[in-house]
Amino acid sequence: MKSRILQWGILSTARINQALIKPLNVSPRNHLMAVASRDLERARSYASENGIARAYGSYEALLADPEIDVVYISLPNSLHVEWTIKAADAGKHVLCEKPLAMRVEEVDAVAAAAKRNGVAVAEAFMYRHHPQTLKVQELIDSGAIGDLRLIRGGFTFYNRRPNNVRLDPGLGGGSIWDLGCYPISYARTVMGGAAPEEVMGWQIVGPTGVDISFFGQMRFGGDVYAQFDSGFQSTPRSPMEFVGSEGRITLTQSFKPEEDARLYLHRDDRPVEVLQMGDDLLYLGEVEDLYDAAVAGRPQRIPLSDSRLNVMTINALLQSAREGRSVRVG
């Protein structure tokens, strides 16, 4: 039997869309059909440039298209929950850029909308589906570095645009929401999806009132600790390190591995093993994962329960930074 092809629509003409267009164009099970903007001419121009058949001058118009099965939401952070719920209520499956939400109650509202409409909703942490991440998980779970003791990571770049949306508090700005969410998520992933038990955070707040740098520590069960930083004031970097009782794993490009990305496995009394893990279709995994959930009903790699714990952890870290004390999570 011929597989069903899911028809996708994109809300917004944001730059991040380009990362998803190529996987949608190469996937035999998915097809990009439409794009929507608040400006019809902009939508038409974007559709023409990217070979998209349909253009809409409002988000509502795209959601009303009965042939659209899945909606990709790449709007500013503050609009994610509103449009994810509207898309779910329109009967569409949803892939929403991170962060899916900024409050636990919002994640619960999204989960309720997904349940009542029988649709799949996923947060777009693309790195979670990549072979490099799956290999890290396999090595840790197999005991390749012994018992996990420490996780360290960071995600930074230097923002030179004072009007960047990432700095707007009204749109959900801040480095921890934009970048820090990645090492936080990665640490939780290798810990089996658990939230930390206790966190401590420090932040540098910029002129607009959002954190432009964040530094955090997390204490997990089993005496495993994690440290991370995120920021808009440092050279571009995205390392992760996993330290165990008998070795460690280091990554050069943890969240957006390109073709020259490397995984280094350091084990006691053995030569360092170097694995080349990058490829040019980073975002394909999240597209195929959503297809499997929407069509085959398979469990999602990133369920909404996981998104809920990430939001809970980030809010605990922000509370710690504001109040100058450690905070218990949950």
Protein architecture, described:
The radius of gyration is 20 Å and the shape is globular. Helix 5 runs antiparallel to helix 9 (304-323). The protein is an alpha/beta fold and 330 residues long. Helices cover 33% and strands 28% of the residues. Strands 7, 8, 9, 10, 11, 12, 13, 14, 15 and 16 form a ten-stranded mixed β-sheet that branches. It contains nine helices and 16 strands.
| Major sheet description | 10 strands, mixed
Question: What share of residues are in beta strands?
Answer: 25-35%
Give the CA-based shape.
Answer: globular
Quick one: how many beta strands?
A: 16
The rounded Rg comes to 20 Å
Query: In DSSP terms, counting alpha (H) and pi (I) runs of 4 or more, how many helices?
Result: 9
Report the order of strands and helices. EHEHEHEHEHEHEHEEEEEEEEHHE
Helix/strand layout:
Layout: E1 6-11, H1 17-26, E2 30-36, H2 40-50, E3 54-56, H3 59-63, E4 70-73, H4 80-89, E5 93-96, H5 104-117, E6 121-123, H6 131-141, E7 148-158, H7 175-190, E8 198-205, E9 211-220, E10 224-231, E11 233-237, E12 240-244, E13 247-251, E14 262-267, E15 273-276, H8 284-295, H9 304-323, E16 327-328
Parallel strand pairs: 1-2, 1-4, 2-3, 4-5, 5-6, 7-10
Antiparallel strand pairs: 7-11, 7-12, 8-9, 8-16, 9-10, 12-13, 13-14, 14-15
